[in-house]
Design brief:
198 residues, alpha/beta, DHBP synthase, seven-stranded mixed sheet, five-stranded mixed sheet, 33% helix, globular
Length: 198
């Protein structure tokens, strides 16, 4: 099923996600694929769709820093970073505090999380709070910014939210912070220098 990024489309997509469905949706970086992160079966299905190694945990998208704080620990240094770059293309690996997510996402004590800067994704997150948010592609292949290409190449999801062409050139930057040291795990839209200057 394909829906537009409007009130009706968002409502339908939220309904499908709440029933355990898989959604493909636009973000501020690339088209993503996601589900309710607390639904173990849905998470497993995304691994199958992407042909992704089960040992590689999925990142999670949150509606806001305040919502993210319900599942992860933010020290003062990290709060300053996210206040500058969220919503936006910065993923941070944090200490996971939600035991239920440890089981459903098959992670131990860390989680990669971000707040995306895209109206459509935020409308979904406003209703869902959290979504598994990984790129909608087969692992090892390029991500999609064009909805038509994404729609043709990805299968076995339940709903596709068409938000038009995404103008971003790359995926989010992933960082981990330890003792106020910023470690770049993957450099993307935001450079190391930009983060340090913050």
């Amino acid at each position: 099923m394909k829906v537009n990024c409007d009130n009706e489309g968002i409502k339908k997509t939220v309904q499908i996600i709440n029933q355990g469905g898989i959604a493909v949706f636009p973000t501020d970086t690339v088209y993503g694929i996601g589900c309710n992160p607390y639904n173990k079966d849905s998470v497993k299905k995304i691994y199958e769709i992407k042909s992704r190694n089960i040992l590689k945990p999925f990142p999670v998208l949150a509606y806001s820093k305040e919502i993210a704080e319900k599942i992860a620990f933010f020290d003062e240094f990290t709060k300053k970073i996210v206040e500058r770059f969220w919503p936006g293309p910065l993923t941070i690996i944090l200490k996971l505090t939600d035991k239920n997510l440890k089981e459903s996402l098959n992670v131990t004590n860390k989680i990669a999380i971000r707040v995306p800067n895209h109206k459509c994704t935020l409308e979904l997150l406003k209703e869902c709070n959290f979504l598994v948010g990984t790129s909608a592609n087969i692992s090892g292949y390029s991500s999609f910014t064009n909805p038509d290409e994404c729609f043709k190449n990805i299968q076995n999801y339940d709903v596709f939210v068409d938000g038009g062409i995404i103008t971003s050139k790359t995926e989010s930057t992933i960082i981990e912070i330890e003792n106020e040291e910023i470690k770049i795990i993957r450099e993307g839209s935001i450079s190391h220098n930009e983060i340090i200057r913050s």
